[in-house]
Specification:
The structure is a single chain. This protein is an alpha/beta fold. It has a single domain, classed as Undecaprenyl pyrophosphate synthetase. Helix content is about 40%, strand content about 15%. The protein has 7 helices and 6 strands, in the order E-H-H-E-H-E-H-E-H-H-E-E-H. It has a 6-stranded parallel beta sheet, sandwiched between helices. Helix 4 links the parallel strand 3 and strand 4. It is globular. The two termini are about 30 Å apart. The structure holds farnesyl diphosphate. Farnesyl diphosphate binds next to helix 1, helix 2, strand 2 and helix 3.
Amino acid sequence: MSNGKEKLPEHVCIIMDGNGRWALAHGLKRNDGHRQGAEAVRAVTEYAAELGIAYLSLFAFSEENWGRPKQETEALMTLILEYIRKETPNLMKNNIRCVFLGDRNNLSSGVVERMDACMETTGNNTGMTLIIFVNYSGKWDVLQAVNRLLETTPTPELPLSYESFSGYLTTVGIPDPDLMIRTSGEIRISNFMLWQMAYTELYFTSVLWPDFRKPDFEAALKAYNNRKRRFGKIEESN
Ligand code: FPP
């Protein structure tokens, strides 16, 4: 796909949707769809790292997902644990640093411990940063930033700047996403990184997440390359 002029997004984030519909279409259970979704996670992570993407963010479990039946939320947590156990050696092999973000309050100590262990093991890797969002929502992130700001600095220097406020978000140090991909044909951002996606290019595809592979990722990158990012300004030549 290269003509030497493509620009690679520095940060790609993905809302991985359609696991349930994939399972239904294959006569399987919803949890089988999630399991297959974890395969897509592995494939896409490796491809993104190989391409030289600096940050890849994956929305694995939203705050709202707790509203699903208990057996499904438990299966998703088990899948995340299994993913960490199985994938940490591959992350090491591919020099990928893995970070978990989200509200830890409702997570079991077992999940928190394994997330921490994976972050520590991969923490010195210098290649791509993979950010897995577990029990995350964009509104929660903004609110925890306000709470933490008031807790740590009861009389902050006012007015706050965008930059100083961003320093309290869980994504501190991570550049805002350049490209957001959502699979399965749904066209919304579902409370993902609300503050951080102010100027992100949005790409929607009808491909169900478990089927999402290299050609689908390439199609998204191609679409991104055809976008003109003006950030509210006009083009230089106008
Ligand atoms: C949305 O599909 C997907 C999720 C709620 C879970 C995403 C989880 C994975 C892809 C696997 C685990 C992740 C990692 C990082 C190991 P849906 O269930 O809403 O699908 P539907 O809309 O078709 O029902």
